[in-house]
Design a protein that fits this description.
heterodimer, A: two-stranded antiparallel sheet, B: about 400 residues, three-stranded antiparallel β-sheet
Chain lengths: ~575, ~400
């Protein structure tokens, strides 16, 4: 063990970084709290008042919308978590897991809107599924009048959320697995005669769950407050709360913005409430699970059942996403494609040709912003981790809450306020504030994917190097970076993907002038043009996929003469 | 109907006259506009035009205007693509709140109706400037009163028109023989073909326009719509509308339990064969969509026998725009006969011109007359009577009321 130097600077680093994350969220929230209570000088609001709360609560459908959001968020999260655990349990220690993750990683950065549109095209009455049925069996020439998507219970919305959240949870689980010595635990349960899957469920799942709570809360927060997915798949009478808030914020009657501010706070309250209820639910569920852990029941048949349920779950989520994306890809080269044709009547590269200049431009700008935000975040993450490491003190629990704050607070509740603050500080909208805004969301993900590898690194290398007189800096640069290259690159690929997918911060902090793939795609999604949406969605998959490919291939090339590293971090 | 509308036109002409008189006597900025100086100051600037970006055709057109602006005036045009005009209003509002009064990030907004009234009433617009633009001389103020009266609100030079729009219905001949040409016929059609028609969910712009269109067909005296909503008579005026909607809603697409989000989503439903009749606020949309392979070439357009609502699209300059001169150059360029010709070309946009074609030079008149119509576009006579937009307060009030009645399904 190295003796950490009395490094007060190191502590300063972590605190500074946490403040950098906390301050924008708090500032942004003030930007909604003030108008919610009537203060909005630009609109002539100078007096404190509660009228807007009364008005909002009295609006038709407000409570139904709130309850709908709450229900959808809860069910979507519960399903995502269950499915992610089932997949992990069924595939643990198999080669299939790696393959699944390789497919899923790029899916992480497809904007929710694109995935949702793909799903809508697949499952709507005039979509691919129905066309297939029409051609093969029924001979419909007009689509049936079924209410899906936009069904009133919100099934379509839940499905759309689940298929985006499962990949996210799986990747978070992968990083959390390093913390719990899963391999050793598995060896023990297997010698005790448990099957691979049952053993995992009993020995690993509970520990893993404890590590997964924050990401789960982030999923809960997102599911409750999503806007674009709700617009594409959600019910419309009433729409979920987030859409209500959006309509108020966008209403031409500017006074409605006061109601929008109230709605944004209610949205935040709903997220807090749902987390609270989730935590209560954990308390109730714990005894049920622990009974099963203690039972000692270890029949292998259980394994097969879990595997079967998992397959159904995967069939219901991941396959539709992939099919939906293939459908969108096909739309990007489709000429006329009327119902009930399964394939387009004509193919045409018109969109790709017409838009090539714009596509290239926004592709380049997106990559530039993502690369810069990732690089800055990487430096910050390394600074934070190294300062914790030198003090041999892991970040406390509350620090993780701060870290996750930008993901827990609905974007609609604080990003508009953040824009106002940035403008007040005289920061001109443009690429620079957009990059800063992205860091807010990129940093937490990168920190999470690097924290465990950072601590898992074998310190004995450092001890030897230090004993030769190498400085901490030199140890970092010459030993740690090369050995951890793969982890660092993967974390960067995750950060890059997160940045590519950002919509609201890009739009507001860039005053709409910063045209990334995602802002373009969402602007086009508002027009519902499947051909263009398909084009942009494909590029949105390609950009992060390039990042992940680089993260996989580069280390193999760098390590081509270092066999031990190829295996150790493979 | 015809007589009434003539009366209204007279009234509007009088107000126009009044506005003209007022502007010529008031020390308005526009009057002192030295166009050469404007051109000089505009040269080399970049104008940020915030305009809805959901249609590739419109985006391409704006890009083309940008090429012209750069070639002719040295002004770089940057199209900021919005998913909703309200985003631009939010930005200007935030900037005002932050005390930014001369370095605003938006130079030009594509706007009309309620957004215009809100911005004008809240002092968020620069002007008057429109009537001082050199190309204003060509604008057909007489024949197209909507170019100076935006949803009955007098524009007073705070916005400059660039395209005429009219509500036009679209149907596929291959699926439907005779489309319903009045509200009553539409009701019968729906009773016989449940699920084959719908409208975008209010408060969407087009959806609410359909409600206003329905109201036009149902009330005895449409003249009341030209005044702000009066609560005293509101219930009585709109009662037939709600009775009508109560009847047709169960026969709408998805039994009225869900509605498409906006104009493009509605158009996609027609393309997918989910409905038989859709509508748009652009008489040339169907032709352009056919040319792009988005609709089958059997789609045609039609209007109601008693006319459909028409209005104009405008551009306005925020009070704090950083490049006001450049913005005026673009507003003026949009009124250039060459640009108007491009916009009216059905293969490009199919937007009807705001200019008085008869007042143009001979070659330009010729060019307008030689424009192909587009396979699904109605001729100016075929478009029939264009009904005036009701006062903009009707739009918000009706949308609100609709949400109250139908926003939560039973």
């Amino acid at each position: 063990m190295i003796r950490p130097p009395a490094f007060s600077a190191a502590q300063g680093v972590s605190v500074t970084i946490l403040l950098l994350l906390l301050a924008p969220v708090i500032m942004g929230l003030t930007g909604v709290i003030a108008p919610a209570f009537g203060l909005f000088p630009a609109l002539g609001g100078h007096e404190l008042t509660l009228t807007y709360w009364k008005d909002a609560f009295a609006s038709t459908g407000f409570w139904e919308a709130s309850f709908l959001s709450f229900r959808v968020g809860m069910i979507a999260t519960l399903s995502s978590v269950t499915l992610a655990f089932l997949i992990m349990a069924s595939l643990n220690e198999t080669a299939l897991l790696k393959m699944v993750l390789r497919i899923l990683s790029p899916l992480l950065s497809i904007p929710h809107a694109a995935a949702a549109l793909g799903l809508a095209f697949l499952l709507s009455p005039s979509g691919w599924g129905s066309r297939f049925v029409a051609q093969s069996f029924t001979g419909w020439d007009t689509p049936p009048d079924w209410l899906f998507p936009h069904d009133q219970f919100g099934f379509a919305l839940i499905l759309g959320l689940v298929l985006k959240e499962v990949p996210f949870l799986l990747l978070m689980m992968l990083s959390a697995l390093n913390q719990i010595r899963a391999q050793e635990a598995m060896r023990v349960v297997k010698t005790l005669g448990y099957g691979r899957i049952t053993g995992w469920m009993k020995a690993i799942a509970p520990q893993l769950y404890a590590q997964m709570r924050l990401p789960i809360f982030a999923v809960l927060a997102f599911s409750l407050s999503t806007i674009d997915v709700a617009l594409i798949l959600g019910p419309t009478r009433p729409a979920p709360l987030s859409v209500f808030v959006l309509e108020w914020m966008n209403n031409p009657v500017l006074e409605k913005r006061f109601l929008g501010a109230v709605g944004a706070l209610v949205q935040l309250g709903a997220v807090c409430l749902s987390i609270l209820i989730w935590v209560l639910g954990e308390k109730f569920a714990a005894p049920l699970f622990s009974a099963s852990y203690k039972s000692g029941y270890r029949a292998y048949s259980r394994d097969r059942m879990v595997f079967g349920v998992m397959l159904i779950g995967v069939g219901l989520t991941i396959i539709p996403t992939l099919l939906g994306l293939v459908g969108l890809g096909l739309w990007s080269i489709a000429g006329l494609w009327p119902y009930p044709e399964i394939l387009p009547n004509q193919l045409s590269l018109r969109i790709w040709q017409n838009e090539s200049a714009e596509l290239l431009q926004s592709f380049g700008l997106s990559c530039l912003i993502a690369a810069t935000a990732t690089l800055i975040s990487l430096l910050l993450v390394i600074a934070a981790l190294q300062s914790e490491f030198l003090r041999q003190k892991r970040a406390p629990k509350w620090a993780f809450w701060v870290l996750f704050l930008p993901l827990l607070v609905p974007q609609i509740s604080f990003v508009p306020g953040l824009q106002l603050c940035a403008f007040s500080l005289g920061i001109a909208p443009g690429v620079f504030p957009v990059i800063l805004g992205h860091i807010l969301f990129v940093f937490p993900y990168m920190y999470l994917s690097l924290v465990e590898p950072w601590w898992a690194w074998d310190q004995r290398y450092a001890v030897v190097a230090r004993s030769f007189g190498a400085s901490e800096m030199r140890v970092l640069a010459s030993l740690r970076f090369p050995i951890m290259l793969r982890s660092i690159l993967i974390a960067s690929a995750v950060g890059f993907a997160v940045s590519i997918g950002q919509y609201l911060p890009t739009l507001l902090l860039g005053a709409g002038r910063v045209e990334t793939l995602t802002t373009e795609a969402v602007a086009l999604a508002s027009g519902g043009n499947r051909r263009l949406i398909g084009t942009y969605a494909l590029l949105q998959i390609i950009a992060p996929a390039l990042g992940f490919a680089l993260a996989t291939l580069l280390p193999n090339w760098v390590y081509r003469n270092r066999k031990e590293l190829q295996i150790a971090y493979g | 109907m015809a007589i009434k509308s003539k009366g209204m036109t007279m009234k509007i002409r009088l107000t126009t006259l009044a506005t003209l008189l007022l502007t010529s006597f008031s020390p308005a900025k526009a009057e002192n506009l030295d166009w050469d100086r404007v051109l000089e100051k505009a040269k080399g600037t970049t104008v940020y035009w915030n305009a809805w970006g959901g249609s590739p055709q419109i985006n391409d057109f704006i890009e083309w205007v940008g090429d012209e602006a750069l070639a002719q005036y040295g002004v770089t045009l940057n199209h900021v693509k919005l998913s909703d005009t309200a985003d631009a209003v939010t930005t200007v509002l935030s900037e005002k709140g932050a005390g930014n009064s001369d370095k605003g990030s938006i130079d030009l907004i594509w706007i009309n109706g309620e957004n215009f009234r809100s911005m004008k009433e809240n002092g968020l617009l620069y002007g008057p400037f429109a009537e001082a633009l050199p190309n204003w001389a060509y604008v057909d103020v007489e024949g197209k009163p909507a170019v100076i009266t935006d949803f009955t609100v007098s524009t007073e030079g705070f916005e400059s028109p660039w395209a005429m729009a009219q509500l036009v219905f679209e149907y596929d001949m291959a699926r439907l023989d005779t489309p319903p040409k009045s509200l009553a016929e539409l009701k019968t059609f729906l009773a016989n073909n449940p699920g084959r028609f719908t409208f975008p969910q209010p408060p969407d712009y087009l959806g609410t326009t359909f409600l206003k269109q329905a109201l036009y067909g149902l009330i005895e005296d449409p003249a009341v719509l030209q005044n702000p909503v009066e609560e005293a008579q509101y219930d009585q005026v709109t009662a037939p509308l709600w009775a009508f909607l109560d009847e047709i809603t169960p026969n709408l697409w998805r039994k009225g339990r869900a509605f498409p989000q906006n104009e493009t989503a509605l158009g996609q439903l027609l393309a997918d064969g989910e409905i038989d009749i859709s509508f748009a606020f652009n008489p040339g949309r169907a032709s352009a969509a056919i040319a792009n392979g988005e609709l089958p070439d059997t789609v045609r357009s039609f209007v109601f026998k008693d006319g459909t609502i028409g209005n104009a699209s405008f551009v306005a300059i925020p009070f704090n725009a950083a490049h006001k001169e450049g913005a005026m150059v673009i507003a003026n360029l949009l009124l250039d006969p060459k640009v108007q010709l491009q916009a009216q070309n059905p293969e490009i946009l199919g937007f009807q011109t705001v200019l008085d074609v008869d007042a143009l030079g001979e070659s330009e008149q010729e060019a307008f007359k030689n424009l192909p119509l587009g396979v699904a576009t109605l001729s100016p006579t075929g478009l029939g009577q264009s009904l005036l937009e009701p006062h903009s307060s009707w739009m918000s009030r009706i949308a609100e009321d609709w949400i109250e009645r139908y926003g939560v399904s039973g």
